[in-house]
Write a structure and sequence with these properties.
The structure is a homodimer of 452-residue chains. Chain A is mostly helical and 452 residues long. The first copy, chain A, folds into three domains: 128 residues, MgtE N-terminal domain-like (MgtE N-terminal fold); 118 residues, Roll (CBS-domain); 161 residues, SLC41 divalent cation transporters, integral membrane domain (Tetracycline Repressor, domain 2), CATH 1.10.357. The first copy, chain A, has 21 helices and seven strands. A three-stranded mixed β-sheet of chain A has the order 2-3-4. In chain A, strands 5-6-7 form a three-stranded mixed β-sheet. In chain A, strand 2, helix 11 and strand 3 form a beta-alpha-beta unit. The longest helix of chain A has 31 residues. Chains A, B: GO terms for molecular function: magnesium ion transmembrane transporter activity; metal ion binding. Chains A, B: Its main location: membrane. Chains A, B: Acts as a magnesium transporter. Chains A, B: Belongs to the SLC41A transporter family. Chains A, B: This is Magnesium transporter MgtE.
């Protein structure tokens, strides 16, 4: 489907494995020779740390820099350990300041300091601008190299400035317009500059800028960049002075990483820092075990609830048959609500202040779902067992669905309010609180309907 | 944090609600007057269908087109119903062909046909090119308006072509290089063109193109565009002839929609077609009820398994205390594995052919997790109840975690192999099969250890 002018991915992977096994440097180089940067990356990401360093060293110089730039920072740090000091400083100098900072975060302090000292003065200054912002702030991900013009400048002069910075600027397709005090006044696209007459003033064709403060959360800024469909998002300081730009490809990378993290956490595991096949088994275990323990400890609540109703169960063992089904349905209903609200929060469709609206909606949704499932449960369980059991199951489903949907819908909002990740915050609550509350509803309804 | 030169979101929303309640058109227009396109969109998305049409009509013409372009196709279709025929055809003519096709898919056939007939000939031809590809294919999302040059052309001539198409082309920052037969030969960036001498040939500065076939899955193509960090991805037909381009902002939109869909489905609900607060309660119920029913019906398997061991439970009611904890832990372990593998598949870190590698890894991960949790379970349950119960719980946790991780890891791969969505495919399997299998493991271990 997707066209690459080469052998298939699997063929290359096989050849590469064979060449690595025999330590055949020339053969390794041959495998990479016909591949593009993206394919080279995909192959490298699947190798273990030692093989990756070995394979990387066979790449020609310019390709090596391109590949290095696009590796995850954690894999870059692995590579640095396997390369010669000289190779590293050369590649390091080629990175853009934001990529450099991401790598520095991954390296031991001694290596990091040596690398910074190896930079020329200008690059060192640019790097430390970016380094100055806290982790997770968009300032860390911005590029401090961009083209500036001024409102009273002419289109022709501005185009000259663009031409002078074709090599250095991170993006030349959106030009920042600032006043004498570096305050952001507008943006103008290269397309509009080319369309205008050279004597026109920039202020007559520039657009109102949207911008983000450098201390803002990077994920929020990246989503803003994506939603606004701009190639470049200006980053300003508290006084509205331009300090950098976030390009759409960096925004995309941020969103993809955030998506990986969210997907992992909402599945109850820490995100892996390396591609799956390149992650040691013990790291995978480490990423999962804490969550599993927390959830298992939370689940001891259900042991206690059932223990409290042990007499009821002894009188009617048949009640234990429905435990997994009932708490499963509660969990599913809660997850549905939490998933919907988490996503709506991420997209800005729902805000924390909408908490009451969300609650009312989810109570209604949960009650309707409970009515449908409860009626069905009443009929099926009533036929298969007896009418009184059917009544218990039906009423419990109604109660559990209403409770689960409303709790599930509120949890992400509560998570957001206490500044936790909504997806992460919801999961343990739903699988412990909703389970335990569901069991209590079940046994209370059972004891009163069955007269136990 | 994010700077907008206006009143806060909440203030605008409040004012808007007030003005809509009193049908005060002038006041509504006032609310939108200071807002940018993004803020206007955010406000409109929160309204119900009728209020949205009313509010939209107060926007000035050029702003209206901009806003319309960026609305979801389903909301566009809602709007069309509330607007005058003339307004609609004007806006429709302004849309780019790919956006036009997305809207057409949402409209009743009669409205769609009338709108197509209202287009001029060139736009009608461009629209039908895009309409010719199946839904879900990248051809549906591409733009057929782009700048073309040829390898033997000079840089100066190419820049002339760019200037001539500044108004029409979807992107002018990446220029397609084709031969006389429209076959894609390379791409050249406007930056490189500006850097080169006007007499240089395009073939000396063009880059090797990466491209995607028009019938390819759009999500795959969008991710490819994002991974390759290109502003524009060329789309070709089976004979490598250029037919369109996918721009990075359209790719971003595709990825965001796909993310919403995946998040919804892996949470066991159909994605909502409209923003949460703009979706009627009965639509939310409809999006959730089918999944809930399927999962509840699947869970009747657990009723049968427990029913088969009812005698065991009657002899030892204490065993029922641990049912939620054990199947919960199994479900969590399975979900962790499924989440990790689903994500690794999406990122291309794991391929369906790696199934055996994944299985071996997940068995090891599951066994290790089971060993840790099982030991803990043995100690705690042994102390709280008796040693034999502790042994049952410990061994069951070992067995359940190993089983759940391996099944959970395989499911997304199996889903991918049968061309189902890995996230959707895994969920019902894990919550029914893993639950039932876990219960069987539990009762078998219990009967043999306790000698029942």
């Amino acid at each position: 489907m997707i066209k690459t002018p080469t052998t298939t991915f699997e063929q290359s992977a096989e050849q590469l494995a064979k060449s690595l096994a025999t330590n055949d440097i020339a053969a390794i180089a041959m495998v990479f020779h016909p591949l593009g940067t993206t394919e080279t990356l995909e192959q490298l990401e699947r190798l273990n740390t030692i093989d990756r360093a070995l394979a990387y060293r066979t790449l020609p110089k310019d390709r090596a820099v391109e590949v290095f730039e696009r590796l995850d920072a954690s894999l870059q740090a692995d590579l640095v350990a396997g390369l010669q000091e000289k190779d590293v400083s050369e590649v390091f100098a080629e990175l853009s300041p934001d990529d450099r900072v991401a790598l520095l975060d991954e390296l031991p302090a001694s290596v990091a300091n040596r690398l910074i000292l190896g930079l020329d003065e200008r690059q060192r200054a640019l790097t430390s601008t970016v380094l100055g912002y806290p982790q997770g702030a968009v300032g860390r991900y911005m590029s401090p190299e961009f083209v500036i013009t001024h409102p009273e400048m002419s289109v022709g002069e501005t185009l000259e400035r663009v031409r002078a910075q074709l090599d250095d600027a991170e993006s030349v397709y959106t030009i920042m317009v600032t006043d004498a005090g570096r305050c952001l006044k507008g943006v103008v696209s290269l397309r509009d500059l080319m369309r205008a007459e050279p004597v026109e003033r920039v202020q007559d064709i520039m657009k109102k800028p949207i911008s983000v403060e450098a201390t803002s959360d990077v994920e929020e800024a990246a989503r803003y960049c994506a939603d606004a469909k701009v190639l470049v998002l200006p980053i300003v300081d508290a006084e509205d002075r331009l300090v950098g730009i976030l390009t759409v490809d960096d925004a995309l990378q941020v969103l993809e990483d955030a998506e990986s993290e969210d997907a992992a956490r909402s599945g109850g595991t820490e995100p892996l820092r390396r591609p799956y096949l390149a992650t040691p088994v013990r790291s995978i275990v480490r990423a999962r075990v804490v969550w599993l323990l927390v959830l298992a400890l939370g689940a001891t609540l259900t042991v206690q609830v059932i223990g409290a109703f042990e007499a009821t169960l002894e009188a009617q063992v048949v009640l234990s048959l429905f435990i997994p089904l009932l708490i499963g349905t509660g969990g599913n209903t809660g997850n549905q609500a939490a998933t919907t609200i988490t996503r709506a929060l991420a997209l800005g469709d729902v805000r924390p202040r909408d908490v009451f609206k969300v609650f009312v909606r989810e109570v209604r949704v949960g009650a309707l779902l409970g009515l449908l499932l409860g009626t069905l449960g009443f009929v099926i369980a009533g036929l298969a067992f007896e009418v009184s059991i059917g009544l218990v199951i039906g009423l419990t489903l109604l109660g559990v669905c209403t409770m689960a949907a409303s709790i599930g819908g509120l949890m992400p909002l509560l998570g957001k309010a206490v500044r936790a990740d909504p997806a992460v915050f919801s999961n343990p609550f739903i699988s412990t609180f909703v389970d335990a509350a569901g069991l209590i509803i079940y046994f209370l309804i059972a004891t009163s309907v069955l007269g136990l």
